[in-house]
Amino acid sequence: MAEILLSEAEKAFIHHGVQDDLRCDGRTRLDYRPIILETGLVSNASGSSRLRLANSDVLVGVKVELASPLSEKPLEGRLEFFVDCSANATPEFEGRGGEDLANEICRFLQMSYMSGDTINLAELSVLTGQQCWVLYVDILILECGGNLYDTVSLAVKSALYTTQIPSIKVATMDGDQPELELSEDPYDTKRLNTQNVPCLVTLMKIGNHYLVDPTPEEECCSSSGVVVAVSGTKKITAVRKIGSGSLHPESLVSMLKTASEVGTVVNKILMNKLLEEERAGKTQKVGFMR
Amino acid sequence: MDMLTSKIFLRKTKRGKVLKVVREHYLRDDLWCGSDLCKKCNQENSEVLDDAPISSSTLCACPHYVVVDTNVVLHQIDVLESPAWKNVIVLQTVLEETRKRSTNNFKKLKEIMATRKDSFYVFVNEHHKDTYVERKPGESANDRNDRAIRKACSWYQTHLEESQQGREKKKKVQIILLTQDFKNREQALKEGIPAYRVDEYVKSLKDFPDLQEKLAASHSDDNAENREPLFPEHWAPTRIMTGIKSGKLLQGIFHCSRENFLEGSVSVEGQDKSILLQGHASLNRAVDGDIVAVELLPEDKWTSPSGIVLEDQEDQDPGDQIEKEEALLTNSTKGKDLQPTGKIVGIIRRKWRQYCGILLPSVLAEGTRHLFVPAERKIPKIRIETRQAATLSSQKIIVAIDSWPRTSRYPLGHFVRALGNIGDKDTENEVLLLEHDVPHHSFPETVLACLPSMPWMISQEEVNCREDLRNLDICSVDPPGCTDIDDALHFRELSPNLYEIGVHIADVSHFVRPDTALDKEAANRGTTVYLVDRRIDMVPELLSSNLCSLRPDQERLAFSVIWEVTPNAEIKKTRFTKSVIRSRRAYTYAEAQCSIDDPLQQNELAKSLRGLNKLAKIMKKNRMEKGALQLSSPEIRFEVSTETNDPIDVISKPMLDTNSMVEEFMLLANISVAEHIFKHFPECAVLRRHPVPPESNFEPFLKAGKTQGFTLDVSSNKSLAASLDAAVKPDNVYMNTMLRILATRCMMQAVYFSSGTVAQVDFYHYGLAAPIYTHFTSPIRRYADLLVHRLLAVAISADVTYAELLDRKCVQQLCNNLNYRHKMSQYAQRSSVALHTHLFFRHRVQDEDAYVLSVRQNALQVLIPKYGLEGSIYLKEKDEDSKSAFIYNPDEPSQTCDNITIRTFDRIVVQVSLDSKYVQHQKIAVHLVQPQIAGLSVEPIKTVNVSEPTPKKLKSGN
């Protein structure tokens, strides 16, 4: 991630702010920065969203495709994540520079979606053992402004929420070839239940305190933290420690507890906003021309 | 107002992926209504729609413009052609829907609109900002289009209203919607748009009472949108496998009938009778050659092959619809000759390859979906997508099949490459080589590197380890123009009661050593293929026409078989040896015949030939007594013009004594060698067998014999030969030949095999009546002979062996390839002759004698001996009422019309010409000249219009 050069004095200032529960931008430790979300931007994709959290900017597209299911899970479809760190975000991503970060995010997303509670993959099955839907979730990171994990997870959830899976009218086998008939009505689609899809919450430890939604400067001041995947039912589906420093078991437990609470709230707010947007119906798309 | 919208739809790709397609759709505000009375639109004054139209309809007396719905165009297109129609608005929605549903009607509509520009106005409602409607959730495409049409109607209403506010109510122009769809009409009336059925409206037109007759029988609008699968589904492979194991299903190779595209058969291994399949559903997307699983129908549903000749000859693209097939198949005579009948439930292995053929001219040239017609009649048409139809339509192209979904009438494929222009001889040659899988690329460098360097001489060591036969008077006898001479003969008297005869075969195995690139190439090619104007060599030309060819007066290496025989052709001694020979002369058959017949010629060679000929005659007689068959198939050769390489004349090959003389000694050599190699290599000798045909094969032959009053005995080859000899009719000399041709068609294919894989009783060669047989005498052009040479060389300790030669599995594999190549090369040769016949008739129409080969329910199959050409005379056209009342008698079989009866083998006169109705798809057409039958036969033409002054003739070699 983009390295920020901070002097010792600046670091101390941030430290003290966190201690006093008043961060540089005026937030408390458990406050998020404002989020801008818009869905359905990419008309070619089956579902898409663009999410901007302060200066972090992410575009997610979901593409549905028919494939054969994995032999160990013949009754389920699957999700495939792919993260692309655009060199627009920071010059360091140029070439293969962003690959490590991309893989990291990718793997953690995969892990947090693995729990059966998050998403019902059986919904994606078309013909048992033969055909299923695979959702290719493509994440494009356009700008890095700290707290990338949270940004990405919120954007992915929104994109999955809007994903329209075409309905298949007839599914039979013709010899060893599956034969499917697609409904010719483009509106005849089904949607996934994304209620429980996890949100990632990053908690950074600065001094004796931890805070959510760190700015790049704050990330720079912290030596350790955790990323927690919290499902809509308040369940933690995956945890990952970040940074080089260590965490005391006690503070870890308390951080997890806080994360699951914050995660649930974020989840609920996001779902409400998505519902609100959907109810508003067709509105002029804003996109990047703002 | 947002002028940019997008159309979104889902599409399944060929590979089964689902694509979401988004098309940008721009709306405009500068599309005019086209009405003369309009004061708002900024249009020029050449409007189509009149200011004050005159209504001749009693249904709607006030002036009006007519908007037609898609279903009117689809079902009542003939009515629209009438000049009664004026002031018609055709919406873009209607145009596009018509185009999608019926290309034929679309084309007609376009024509109507082009010729009557002053009456039809196309309103591009889909792009007009006020009339564009977006599809709503849950709305079918049809409903959306109906809504778009109504929207356009009401827009016109309000739009025109504004311009004619001052008018009297009765003079105001109205918009009338004509639709056959009840729901649409209801809805339109509800929205205040006057709507009528087209038949209602047409009947109300008082000025055009005749128009009613053109109305098509009223169609209830059948929303034919939902595409029902046309074929039953295939079973899953596991289900098929268990079905085969339990014996419920049978596995076999599917053969499509050559004569009837709706009929096929499946030959199941170990079953005498093949299983009959009839109709689209039973054939279930099988393509000729596929290995399929068949379910037998209950016995009461068994039928017999229908006697009719049926071609899938739609000249137009019928779309994905299956025509009513009952009519095409019901004629099958029930009740006798029942054959096991079944239906295909699954395909075990596809044998799809690439096919040569042409594109069917499409109604809509700018479209991308076209039908491809393969050259091979047994292969169904293939639907391909291409944007270059215009350029490809005049070319022969190659197409590969990708899939055959249940909803598609034809298999789907893709364009592979173009070969060249239709009718070009080079293109057509290329096509037939490709069609028959003949490897015809030039020899690669690695192969050429295996050849000896020139100039080449026989070294002294080579001579030392061979028998020196250079002193003998050896000569060769071959067809004219032959450059690959692989056999030569000699004859000398040892004593008055003992002759020595020798057969000397080119020693190709000396040059083609095992396991070299040259050997592998030759093994793959398997045989030399002789086309009419071209020879595709098995080994490079340096070997085939020079070093191996036993040219006169040149020292050549040979493999010799030398017998000592008595004057009664009794063999006393046989020996085999590698040798060095020098042929004295290369005779043609005719020259050799001359030397024998001319008593003035008393040189050594002439004497030898006479001796050989005498012995050959005795040998042939002995062989015939043992039961060898003399069969016949029409053979012709072309005389080819040297300049254009086009055929200018056709002659049948003459049969001379010398032909059979050479043949006799080659047979003798082959049999002697076969015995010898089998003695030394009982496990891996390469032999050739000709299986005894099963009795059922002879059925058509026996039937044909019966019509002529002959009882033919087919219990053994000897009895068959005898009954063939007896079946002679003095008034129909060609009848016997015809019988022999028919008998040939009952035969099995002779095959190469490795002696270890077959029981010794099955070695029998049925046609030659020889207990054991092989091919030894043509190593230049057949790879099997080369293998036999190697085996024989090992047997006489003249060469060493190698592992593959002694492994019976390897040998059998080689044999399988050779059998395949041999079969294909024969087909290719036949096609080449057919192609040249075709070229020959390009400028000609000729009357020729012909004989009826078989009588079918709707056709006569005739053979024209002069060209070896077979053709069909259709007695009844498919769609027309029978032009001439032919009565078919299936028992005889015969066709009777008035007092003329045509039976099998009858001699008739036919007119042969090239049917160039379609430039793309020329074929030889045969018409009846005699006996004269009104309505069917054509006037005789006795002119032969050869326009080319070509005295220079070149005989094509064989």
TrEMBL record, chain A:
<dbReference type="GO" id="GO:0071035">
    <property type="term" value="P:nuclear polyadenylation-dependent rRNA catabolic process"/>
</dbReference>
<dbReference type="GO" id="GO:0000177">
    <property type="term" value="C:cytoplasmic exosome (RNase complex)"/>
</dbReference>
<dbReference type="InterPro" id="IPR020568">
    <property type="entry name" value="Ribosomal_Su5_D2-typ_SF"/>
</dbReference>
<dbReference type="GO" id="GO:0034473">
    <property type="term" value="P:U1 snRNA 3'-end processing"/>
</dbReference>
<dbReference type="GO" id="GO:0071028">
    <property type="term" value="P:nuclear mRNA surveillance"/>
</dbReference>
<dbReference type="InterPro" id="IPR001247">
    <property type="entry name" value="ExoRNase_PH_dom1"/>
</dbReference>
<dbReference type="InterPro" id="IPR050590">
    <property type="entry name" value="Exosome_comp_Rrp42_subfam"/>
</dbReference>
<protein>
    <recommendedName>
        <fullName>Ribosomal RNA-processing protein 42</fullName>
    </recommendedName>
</protein>
<dbReference type="GO" id="GO:0000467">
    <property type="term" value="P:exonucleolytic trimming to generate mature 3'-end of 5.8S rRNA from tricistronic rRNA transcript (SSU-rRNA, 5.8S rRNA, LSU-rRNA)"/>
</dbReference>
<dbReference type="GO" id="GO:0071038">
    <property type="term" value="P:TRAMP-dependent tRNA surveillance pathway"/>
</dbReference>
<keyword id="KW-0271">Exosome</keyword>
<dbReference type="InterPro" id="IPR036345">
    <property type="entry name" value="ExoRNase_PH_dom2_sf"/>
</dbReference>
<dbReference type="GO" id="GO:0034476">
    <property type="term" value="P:U5 snRNA 3'-end processing"/>
</dbReference>
<dbReference type="Pfam" id="PF03725">
    <property type="entry name" value="RNase_PH_C"/>
</dbReference>
<dbReference type="GO" id="GO:0035925">
    <property type="term" value="F:mRNA 3'-UTR AU-rich region binding"/>
</dbReference>
<dbReference type="GO" id="GO:0000176">
    <property type="term" value="C:nuclear exosome (RNase complex)"/>
</dbReference>
<dbReference type="GO" id="GO:0005730">
    <property type="term" value="C:nucleolus"/>
</dbReference>
<dbReference type="InterPro" id="IPR015847">
    <property type="entry name" value="ExoRNase_PH_dom2"/>
</dbReference>
<comment type="similarity">
    <text>Belongs to the RNase PH family.</text>
</comment>
<dbReference type="GO" id="GO:0034475">
    <property type="term" value="P:U4 snRNA 3'-end processing"/>
</dbReference>
<dbReference type="GO" id="GO:0016075">
    <property type="term" value="P:rRNA catabolic process"/>
</dbReference>
<dbReference type="Pfam" id="PF01138">
    <property type="entry name" value="RNase_PH"/>
</dbReference>
Automatic annotation (TrEMBL), chain B:
<dbReference type="Pfam" id="PF17215">
    <property type="entry name" value="Rrp44_S1"/>
</dbReference>
<dbReference type="Pfam" id="PF13638">
    <property type="entry name" value="PIN_4"/>
</dbReference>
<feature type="domain" description="PIN">
    <location>
        <begin position="64"/>
        <end position="186"/>
    </location>
</feature>
<dbReference type="InterPro" id="IPR001900">
    <property type="entry name" value="RNase_II/R"/>
</dbReference>
<dbReference type="Pfam" id="PF00773">
    <property type="entry name" value="RNB"/>
</dbReference>
<dbReference type="GO" id="GO:0004519">
    <property type="term" value="F:endonuclease activity"/>
</dbReference>
<keyword id="KW-0540">Nuclease</keyword>
<dbReference type="GO" id="GO:0000175">
    <property type="term" value="F:3'-5'-RNA exonuclease activity"/>
</dbReference>
<keyword id="KW-0378">Hydrolase</keyword>
<dbReference type="GO" id="GO:0003723">
    <property type="term" value="F:RNA binding"/>
</dbReference>
<dbReference type="GO" id="GO:0000176">
    <property type="term" value="C:nuclear exosome (RNase complex)"/>
</dbReference>
<dbReference type="InterPro" id="IPR033770">
    <property type="entry name" value="RRP44_S1"/>
</dbReference>
<dbReference type="GO" id="GO:0006364">
    <property type="term" value="P:rRNA processing"/>
</dbReference>
<dbReference type="GO" id="GO:0016075">
    <property type="term" value="P:rRNA catabolic process"/>
</dbReference>
<comment type="similarity">
    <text>Belongs to the RNR ribonuclease family.</text>
</comment>
<protein>
    <recommendedName>
        <fullName>Protein DIS3 homolog</fullName>
    </recommendedName>
</protein>
<keyword id="KW-0255">Endonuclease</keyword>
<dbReference type="InterPro" id="IPR022966">
    <property type="entry name" value="RNase_II/R_CS"/>
</dbReference>
<dbReference type="InterPro" id="IPR002716">
    <property type="entry name" value="PIN_dom"/>
</dbReference>
<dbReference type="GO" id="GO:0000177">
    <property type="term" value="C:cytoplasmic exosome (RNase complex)"/>
</dbReference>
<dbReference type="InterPro" id="IPR041505">
    <property type="entry name" value="Dis3_CSD2"/>
</dbReference>
<keyword id="KW-0271">Exosome</keyword>
